[in-house]
Every structure is written in C-alpha cells, then in structure tokens.
Specification:
Layout: H1 2-49, H2 60-73, H3 80-84, H4 93-103, E1 109-114, E2 117-122, H5 142-154, E3 157-158, H6 159-166, H7 172-180, E4 184-189, E5 197-201, H8 203-209, H9 220-225, H10 257-276
Antiparallel strand pairs: 1-2, 3-5, 4-5
Helix pairs in contact: 2-4, 5-7
C-alpha cells in the first residue's frame, strides 16, 4: 500500500508540472508580441514623417517648381535653410533660386530677398494697381458747424456779418474747410465800402443734407420741437428765412471765370493778411 501510494502521488506531481511550466511561457510570448507592436508603430510613424519625393525630384526644372510652390504657400519669407529642408538631399538651392528669380524678372511678381530671406512681391512698376482711393471722413469742428449754419440761414453773408452773429473772429481756416468740402461758395460782392465778398451754400450742401432747396431748412418752431433751441430765447430772437437768389451782395460776379478766380484769389490774400496781423 505504501509503494502504490507513493507512485500515485508522484504521478499527480508530474501531471501538475506542464500546467505550471506553460504560464511563464505564455507570459513571455505576450511580452514579446507587445514589443513587436510597439516597434511596428514607431516604424509607421517614422515612415509617415519621411517626405516622399517623385522620381524626377532631382531634375532642375522640378526643383524650381518645388521652390516656387514653397514660396507661394509660405506665410512669411523663407531663408535658404528652410527651403533646403524641404528639398531632396544635395539639391543646389542657390542655383535654383537664382534661376527662379531670372524667370520672374518680366512677370507681374518678382522673387526678392528681404532680410536674407526670399519672398514673392508685386513688381514695383505695377504698384499703382494696388492703390485704392478712399474719401477720408473728417468731422467738422464746432466753429465750422456754426459758421456753416450762419451762412446757410443768412446768405449771402460777409465775413464781418458772420463774425458779428457768432461774436468771435472767424479764422481763415474755417472758411477754407467749408469751401474745400464744396458746401460753401462765393456768391458775389456786397455794395458797401470795400465791396466785401459774400458767402452762400452750394448744391452739394443741399444733396448732403437731403434738402430740395435752401428754403427747406427747419424754422424756429421746428428747431424748438427738435430741442435745438432753448425755450428761454431773448426777446426779438428770430430765425431768418434763407434765400438762394436775390439779396444784397449776390450775383455781382460776371460770368468770366477769370474775374471769379481773381476775386477768390483776392479774398484768400486778404484773409491771409488779416491772419498775419
């Protein structure tokens, strides 16, 4: 009984050995497979980062096309090293750029070097095509607005009359600005000593402010309703009715352009002399 029992126990131990021996073997295979997967992934990543050049990449004409594409697509100028880093190894970047520069000499854009970097730029003789004219909007000063309102309601008005109504001296620059905008013009000479010139509004003034004629300017009641006039106005205050025609100092200029131009020059000279004083 004792011998049989020992044999039976020995057989049981032998049966257990293969199962215990397989466990580390399986574990080893799993680790090896994991290492292979990691290596395969790194190889795929490296392959993706390699620039695949066409078979004719070494051709000079193809290199010129490649550099041309790089410079057009770049958001900023590129230096030689940046360009060379995208070309096949051994490419003569300097020669390629030189030939590309010559190819664009007669084109609408030129290949130029700026700060030791290369970029395409519009040809200098075509810069006029890139210009765009725009009207610069300027806000009139308070003095100019007051002067314009006085001229609109009191035209034809002389400079002295404008100053009397405003209570301050009218600078030459204020009237010049109004005349440059095309809203104020010379209307004629007043039949008083010195024959001063008078000012009035223009058609451009009516167009800008949406008026059919100068008589459509708001009256005192409308100005009060709009809150533009104080309710406590001085006694006898009135808003005149402007007129586009008639009035003393209107229409004294002849149709001769030279006379009108001479009057304007004389007027500006007088203003300049007054400002110098």
């Amino acid at each position: 009984m004792n011998d049989e029992t020992s044999v039976s126990e020995a057989e049981d131990e032998i049966d257990m050995l293969p199962e215990e021996a397989e466990m580390p073997a399986d574990g080893g295979e799993e680790d090896f497979d994991g290492e292979e997967s990691a290596l395969d992934g790194e190889a795929e990543d490296a392959a993706e980062n390699v620039v695949r050049f066409p078979g004719n990449a070494a051709d000079h004409a193809q290199l010129m096309r490649m550099v041309e594409a790089l410079l057009f697509a770049a958001a900023e100028p590129l230096d030689i090293d940046s360009i060379a880093g995208r070309l096949p190894e051994g490419a003569d970047v300097g020669a390629v750029i030189e030939d590309l520069q010559k190819a664009y000499e007669s084109r609408g854009v030129h290949l130029v070097r700026i700060a030791n970097k290369w970029m395409f730029r519009t040809a200098d003789d075509l810069s006029f095509l890139m210009e765009r004219e725009a009207v610069e909007q300027k806000k009139l000063s308070r003095a100019a607005m007051e002067t314009l309102a006085i001229i609109a309601y009191h035209q034809p008005a002389t400079r002295a009359e404008i100053e009397e109504i405003r209570g301050v001296t009218v600078s030459k620059g204020t009237l010049d600005v109004l005349m440059e905008t095309g809203w104020v013009r010379l209307r004629g000479r007043k039949k008083t000593p010195g024959r001063p010139v008078t000012y009035g509004t223009t058609e451009a003034f009516l167009v800008h402010f949406g008026l059919e004629n100068i008589g459509d300017l708001p009256g005192m009641d409308e100005l009060k309703a709009a809150g533009l006039l104080d309710g406590r106005l001085p006694p006898g205050f009135d808003v005149p009715t402007p007129s586009e025609t008639g009035g003393e100092g209107d229409g004294d200029f002849s149709d001769d352009e030279e006379e009108y131009g001479a009057a304007l020059d004389e007027h500006l000279a007088q203003d300049s002399a007054a400002d110098d004083r």
